[in-house]
Automatic annotation (TrEMBL):
<dbReference type="InterPro" id="IPR050723">
    <property type="entry name" value="CFA/CMAS"/>
</dbReference>
<keyword id="KW-0489">Methyltransferase</keyword>
<dbReference type="InterPro" id="IPR013216">
    <property type="entry name" value="Methyltransf_11"/>
</dbReference>
<dbReference type="GO" id="GO:0052908">
    <property type="term" value="F:16S rRNA (adenine(1518)-N(6)/adenine(1519)-N(6))-dimethyltransferase activity"/>
</dbReference>
<dbReference type="InterPro" id="IPR029063">
    <property type="entry name" value="SAM-dependent_MTases_sf"/>
</dbReference>
<protein>
    <submittedName>
        <fullName>Ribosomal RNA small subunit methyltransferase A</fullName>
        <ecNumber>2.1.1.182</ecNumber>
    </submittedName>
</protein>
<dbReference type="Pfam" id="PF08241">
    <property type="entry name" value="Methyltransf_11"/>
</dbReference>
<keyword id="KW-0808">Transferase</keyword>
<feature type="domain" description="Methyltransferase type 11">
    <location>
        <begin position="78"/>
        <end position="178"/>
    </location>
</feature>
Amino acid sequence: MKEYIGKVLLDYEYYTGKDIYSDGEIEDELLVIVKNNTTDEFNNIIMQKKKWPILYHLSNIRENIIEWIPFTKDDRVLEVGAGCGAITGVLAEKAKHVTCIELSKKRSLINAYRNKDKENIEIRVGNFEDIKISDKYDYITLIGVFEYAQSYINQEEPYECLLKQLYEKLDNKGKLIIAIENKMGMKYWAGCKEDHVDMFFEGLEDYSNTKGVKTFTKNEIENMFKKLDIKDYSFYYPYPDYKFPNTIYSDDYLPNEGELTDNMRNFDMDRIKLFDESKVYNMIIRNQLFPIYSNSYLIIVEKGNN
């Protein structure tokens, strides 16, 4: 079964009829908003509603994580875990075609309505592992999705398995873009709850009390790449994090002392303050340790030997 929302194609061939992942009733509100408002009106709605999910799903700041990447009008993009379309629109503006994969029909509808005027978007609704993908892509994105691989990849080593599958779906010299929280991010030491499980220090304690979702340290991610013989990759460091990045640092341009002062953002849950993060950041910058404690990572994996 297929349907069009405006110019956006939704394909339900692999949809089971049940949304496995949902934020609940707030998604109904999001659907009403995108049906009845243009993207230019979203910021005013965010100000009026003052709700974390509306900010998270509709803010244009979300686009900063990939807006700077030099997509071209010849590029084909596979967006795995497109959600409510926070970055689908900017991908469609830059690339030739965007194929989205998303577990949830409701989230796919939200995505489709907010991007209904774009004719180069196809949304395939269903589990990534079930959907048959025969094409090769110039870019594949995993923005806030990799950490959930254990929930939708039914394999003994789901994270490595997902990386391997996506790497094989890249065209020659294609790129895989991953955005994920750092398990050892500074904010978690300073008193923020782990983003996915709403518990203090759960990531730092290596998820000893929870299952189904996990983030990783820089070293753990690099070890996965080594195991899969992936050699061409670069780490970037979104600040304050990958969700709402103001700055994206790289190994060629790391932060200087005094730059990291926007640290008290925590819109979705309560936090405590155990120390002054700016002062600790200055210390780790002096000791060249910032990449270890960056709150989030943006990783670009390139296929081939360039």
